[in-house]
């Protein structure tokens, strides 16, 4: 039930015939993105690029490219999760669907993050320049992480219950960024992190931010879910995962998934605004 990390998910998808490996060298500048888009439009499998030019790390694409694959990855928990939302909207729903009752306590328990002191995330260190330098479109301003899970907390009410986990453009190279020291973060002011940043600006303080890459697939999906107000994405991720997700404390005090593939721990400094892109995210 649930995947502890991305590697286990990859192995399961490959065994099910829903993931292919591309073992020839692929250029992360435009070529990888072009391959991924063709496979996505053909409703094809997930893709594991095992040899990325300029990087010793592999790269996964098209993980959530079809509804069938999404349902396969979360096959053990989707029904119970849907039931929770139905109960919130209609408390009588549970009486109409008694089969959900045995599943609900486990789902609620799984939502609680589990604090640990050690994890595989600590087994290696990497520089931004060592990651696959993915440029998806001609003319973009640099390399990007395209499925980042960006975590922040309210400076006024620190803690997981006031946290936000969202997916925002993370530029890891390009003109105006100090190599291996700086990255660009693009968000809309009405997003959860926008509120956190506003609070930090009012205090004239840096905003601690962690960017998770990989790890349990439930974290990635939770980062893009339009959840009801008051439900932190981190808690939803645990419920979707079907078992508690282990976190350790990062150098900036924020949690880090113990089995994430990478985590960028940093701070957003007050009034440090720079050009990014030129392309925007899905809103334009």
- The strands making up the biggest β-sheet line up spatially as 7-6-10-13
- Mean model confidence by pLDDT: 89
Work out the radius of gyration: 19 Å
- Major beta-sheet overview: 4 strands, antiparallel
In N-to-C order, the SSE pattern is HEHEEHHHHEEEEEEHEHHEEE
Shape annotation = globular
* Assembly form of the protein: single chain
The residue ranges in which pLDDT falls below 50 over 5 or more consecutive positions are: 89-96
Distance between the termini: 37 Å
Number of domains: 2
Indicate the proportion of strand residues. 15-25%
**Total number of helical segments?**
9
Number of strands: 13
Overall helicity? 25-40%
Please state the structural category: alpha+beta
Would you kindly provide a written description of the structure presented here, covering whatever features stand out?
- It is a single chain.
- The chain contains nine helices and 13 strands.
- The chain starts with 5 loop residues before the first helix and ends in a 16-residue tail after the last strand.
- The longest helix has 12 residues, at 78-89.
- A hairpin with a 5-residue loop joins strand 11 (246-249) and strand 12 (255-257).
- By secondary structure, it is of the alpha+beta class.
- The strands form four sheets. The protein has a four-stranded antiparallel β-sheet with strand order 7-6-10-13. The protein has a three-stranded mixed β-sheet with strand order 1-2-3. The chain has a three-stranded mixed β-sheet with strand order 4-11-12, with no helix packed on it.
- It is globular and about 50 Å long.
- The protein has two domains: 6-73 and 111-268, no CATH class; 78-110, no CATH class.
């Amino acid at each position: 039930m649930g995947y502890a990390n991305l590697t286990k998910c990859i192995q399961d998808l490959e065994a099910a015939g829903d993931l292919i490996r591309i073992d020839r060298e692929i250029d992360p500048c435009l070529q990888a993105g072009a391959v991924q888009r063709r496979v996505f439009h053909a409703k094809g499998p997930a893709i594991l690029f095992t040899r990325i030019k300029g990087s010793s790390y592999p790269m996964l694409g098209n993980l959530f490219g079809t509804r069938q694959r999404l349902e396969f990855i979360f096959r053990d928990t989707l029904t119970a999760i849907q039931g929770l939302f139905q109960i919130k909207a209609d408390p009588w729903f549970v009486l109409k669907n008694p089969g959900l009752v045995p599943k609900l306590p486990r789902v609620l328990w799984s939502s609680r993050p589990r604090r640990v002191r050690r994890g595989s995330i600590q087994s290696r260190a990497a520089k931004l320049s060592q990651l696959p330098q993915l440029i998806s479109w001609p003319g973009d301003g640099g390399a990007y992480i395209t499925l980042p899970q960006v975590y922040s907390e309210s400076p006024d009410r620190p803690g997981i219950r006031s946290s936000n986990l969202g997916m925002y453009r993370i530029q890891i190279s390009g003109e105006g960024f100090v190599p291996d020291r700086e990255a660009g973060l693009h968000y809309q002011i009405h997003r959860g992190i926008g509120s956190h940043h506003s609070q930090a600006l009012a205090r004239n303080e840096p905003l601690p931010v962690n960017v998770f890459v990989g790890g349990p697939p439930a974290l990635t999906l939770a980062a893009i879910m339009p959840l009801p107000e008051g439900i932190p994405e981190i808690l939803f991720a645990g419920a979707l995962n079907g078992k508690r997700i282990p976190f350790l404390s990062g150098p900036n005090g924020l949690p880090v998934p113990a089995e994430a593939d990478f985590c960028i721990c940093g701070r957003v400094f007050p009034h440090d605004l720079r050009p990014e892109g030129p392309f925007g995210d899905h809103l334009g």
